[in-house]
Amino acid sequence: MTDKTYVLAIDQGTTSSRAILFNHDGEIVAVDQKEHAQILPRAGWVEHDALEIWRNTRDVVAGVLSAAEINRHEIASVGITNQRESVVVWDRTTGEPVHNVIVWQDTRTQRICDRLAASAPGASAEAPDYDRYKDRVGLGLATYFAGPKVAWILENVEGARERAEAGDLLLGTMDTWVLWNMTGGVDGGVHATDVTNASRTMLMNIDTLDWNPEICADMGIPVSMLPEIKPSSGVFGYGRKNGLLVDTPISGILGDQQAATFGQACFEVGQAKNTYGTGCFMLMNTGTTPVRSANGLLTTVAYQIGDAPAVYALEGSIAVAGSLVQWLRDNLGLITESKDVEELARSVEDNGGAYFVPAFSGLFAPYWRPDARGALVGLTRYVNKGHIARAVEEATAFQTREVLEAMNRDAAASGSPGATLTELKVDGGMTRDELLMQFQADQVGVPVVRPQVAETTALGAAYAAGIAVGFWSGTQDVVDNWAEGKRWLPQMDLDERERLFRNWKKAVTRTLDWVDEDVVE
């Protein structure tokens, strides 16, 4: 591998696709990025154009190679990380999607989830069982996950069910779509996914890491559509002959939050990280045994390296974090760029009594209330745009505290050595916001630590890919490369901390029971 100097990561995210080139020290050498359109056909619906995403992926790979002035011969391997739960269905012979990508934030599948919950053994429409699959898949029935999205496509796109049952259609989360195209598409493309993405579909047995035919049948999804499940670190396939990465091994795939956990070197039981992106996602390593949550968290696969046992995690998923800042920018026009929110929030000393609960897609962890909708409460004439910006900042920190407390309760109940987090590792774009990070430390009451390389999602995918081909020797290299960038310590008076959080909890109650049965989304 002496002539191979770099590993390339492709980060297919919710708002953009990026290619990032890393050297052996885990340092960023070059980056290229392109945003894709957010398609919002109606309230609660969020879509992407899969073909646009594939075009953008090719463009950013070309851009990063050009920026670094290298070619494929210097790249040891490629890793892919992706927005999870977003799903696409396409024709295996033409490569054409039958519908836009249905994005993880989309809530159109609520009625499918309700139907499945009501038809569970012993359940009814009056007493639905949203946990009917939880023992098998680690997830409750919710619009968040990929399986019901596929069911919606097969039920609502003309001719899709017949084509699926004839074996003509394939499905995949975005890693699968990118991999299939990168390895040849209709000309021999590899149809596969990794255990972390498969664990977000509601279709994979969490203990045995294989597809569950019974759940697939309940959702009307032919098993022939499903990709092969593989470990996160291992060779999936090689770059297509007519692309820029000819014969380059694609040898790492992780869903974005698992990739960030890997990049943050959370390899010991009890270690946890929180990623601040479009949403906010906290994962805690629970070892090689899946831990079922009693506090509104998800049981998920953290990673699997080759033939080694899979490592599991508890996850707290928050639907809206950075996207609330984007909403402030794009829908209200209160700021010009997302980074301006910090300066606007600093123009006031506190939130002025205003609290913003961004339940745009319902509330995720730890509530799982699809009937909730966003609310800005506590308004008086005193409140100005600075206070609203402050409330936007604080919403992310309050939601994170709720998830952390749920995680501590689950970990304590399981006997995990990480029963109480002593520090919170953080990453993602919002960690550049110093005001938010300080308020986060104040709310969780433990140090908040950001690594030197904050792009840990792409870095984690790069590490998984590099380990698979011997570019890095193993996880110890990841630990050795990890370095602390900045640390924030709690400073807020305890009474003030609890007063703010008490009012936040009160604000959350105002968002519940908003969506009635006659609301069509």
Write a structural description:
32% of the residues lie in helices and 21% in strands. The chain is an alpha/beta fold and 521 residues long. It folds into two domains: 6-264, Nucleotidyltransferase, domain 5 (2-Layer Sandwich); 317-421 and 494-510, 2-Layer Sandwich (Nucleotidyltransferase, domain 5), CATH 3.30.420. The longest helix has 30 residues, at 385-414. The protein is globular and about 65 Å long. The chain starts with 5 loop residues before the first strand and ends in a 12-residue tail after the last helix.
**Biggest sheet features:** 7 strands, mixed
The CATH architecture term of the largest domain is: 2-Layer Sandwich
Strand content: 15-25%
What do the pLDDT scores average to? Answer: 92
From the N-terminal CA to the C-terminal CA, the straight-line distance is: 53 Å
pLDDT below 50 for ≥5 consecutive residues: which ranges?
A: none
How many separate domains? 2
Globular, elongated, flat, extended or rod-shaped: what is the shape? globular
Q: From the 3D structure, determine the CATH topology of the largest domain.
A: Nucleotidyltransferase, domain 5
Number of strands: 21
Based on secondary structure, the structural category is: alpha/beta
**What's the gyration radius in Å?**
22 Å
Helix-residue proportion: 25-40%
Strand order of the largest sheet: 15-16-14-13-19-20-21
Quaternary assembly: single chain
Number of helices: 16
Top CATH class of the largest domain: Alpha Beta
Give the CATH superfamily of the largest domain: ATPase, nucleotide binding domain
Keywords: ATP-binding, Glycerol metabolism, Kinase, Nucleotide-binding, Transferase
Domain Carbohydrate kinase FGGY N-terminal: 6-263
Catalytic activity: glycerol + ATP = sn-glycerol 3-phosphate + ADP + H(+)
Family: Belongs to the FGGY kinase family.
